[in-house]
Write a structure and sequence with these properties.
Methylamine Dehydrogenase, Chain H, five-stranded antiparallel sheet, mainly beta
Length: 361
């Protein structure tokens, strides 16, 4: 079983000479010359950083077996079509786009690689669909579209809006989080055949939740969902072969002065702590987990930026990196595990429309 690494900016661990590297890829989603992916080799000497121009890229993952990267793009260069870019890293770590494929869907915003590396899946937010793309020698080929139908209770839920796709730790099912339907659709996956669209299990969230992203506990028996539309986090536990609602808590204390939209959610390797980005409140929520899906909000810490679209936990779990979309910055917070605190750092990097972070491996 391959271990998959993902993140809408992403962070990927780098292990070199027994040390954890601080190098990471930062994604900037613009339609101009600043749109692309930067390998951050230094936080102080920015001349060392390596930039790859790629307009409208918004999410990045890597296949650890082939070393290829895949990124969702709102528009393939020279077209108005959304798709997936395949990228290859040279020895320095700089990325180069080597292929593009259309997903036959609008605004692909998230993607996942199957456990055996034979299929790639995208969540297409604006066209209410997923796309299953078979891979040939690591390059995505034209695939099939899986529509999501229906609507939710809120203004932004006029139709389905898939926002996340990802596999459970066992690699048996593809989970598709749909903001428009207040659902997580669970598709059984089979090696060589792809997902089974006729045997879908559905986790239903409360009306108006607007689920965006999810993470699993290490054993795969608990799911934690960040809900964009009502600033909550919901947990579900697996009992008797079925998912049952466990708890829903707020991602912040009190009522924010501005509208708030939770974005990314991350979890520590032992499953004890969750981190949720609050876009609008401009904070990172630190949540402690307990038995049977229990959660407790410990604090919210200032992210030192505006609209933290994505966050990532460093490989040694001592730091949170935030990609702040509206301020166009990447910022850093220390995670003090012993005292259960997040401590904002002063350092800050400029990236137009910063969307995500991915540690280099």
């Amino acid at each position: 079983m391959r271990q998959l690494f993902s993140g809408a900016m992403l962070i990927m661990a780098v292990l070199s000479a027994g040390c954890v590297s601080t190098e990471f890829y930062a994604v900037s989603d613009t339609s101009g010359e600043t749109g692309g992916i930067t390998l951050v080799k230094s936080r102080t000497d920015t001349a060392r950083n390596l930039f790859t121009h790629l307009k409208t890229v918004n999410y990045l993952i890597r296949d650890p077996a082939s070393g290829l990267f895949y990124g969702t793009v709102s528009r393939i260069p020279g077209t108005k079509q959304g798709g997936v870019a395949t990228l290859r890293a040279d020895e320095s770590g700089r990325l180069e786009a080597v292929a593009f494929v259309q997903v036959n869907g609008a605004v692909p915003c998230h993607l996942a690689l199957s456990p055996d590396g034979s299929f790639l899946y995208t969540a297409n937010y604006s066209s209410a669909s997923l796309t299953e793309l078979p891979l040939k020698s690591g390059i995505p080929q034209a695939g099939k579209v899986i529509p999501h139908r229906g609507r939710g209770a809120g203004k932004r839920q006029e139709k389905a809006h898939p926002h996340f796709v990802g596999f459970d730790p066992a690699g048996k099912n593809l989970h598709a989080v749909d903001l428009g339907l207040d659902q997580v659709k669970i598709y059984p996956w089979h090696a060589g055949r792809g997902i089974d669209t006729k045997a879908v299990e559905i986790i239903r969230l409360h009306a108006g939740a607007g689920p965006r992203h999810l993470v699993f506990s290490p054993d795969g028996n608990t799911i934690y969902v960040a809900n964009e539309l009502d600033s909550t986090v919901s947990s579900f536990v697996r009992r008797g072969g079925k998912w049952e609602a466990a708890q829903t808590i707020r991602s912040l204390n009190g009522v924010p002065e501005t509208r708030n939209y939770p974005g990314a959610i991350r979890i520590t390797k032992d499953g004890r702590f969750l981190f949720v980005s609050n876009r609008g409140h401009n904070s990172i929520a630190l949540i402690e987990t307990g038995k049977n899906g229990a959660m407790k909000l410990l604090e919210t810490a200032d992210c030192n930026g505006d609209f933290p679209r994505d966050i990532a936990l460093s490989p040694d779990e001592t730091e949170i990196i935030a990609a702040n979309e509206k301020s166009g910055t990447v910022t850093f917070l220390m995670f003090d595990r012993e005292n259960r605190k997040l401590v904002p750092k002063k350092e800050k990097l400029a990236f137009p429309r910063a969307l995500g972070i991915y540690f280099r491996m």
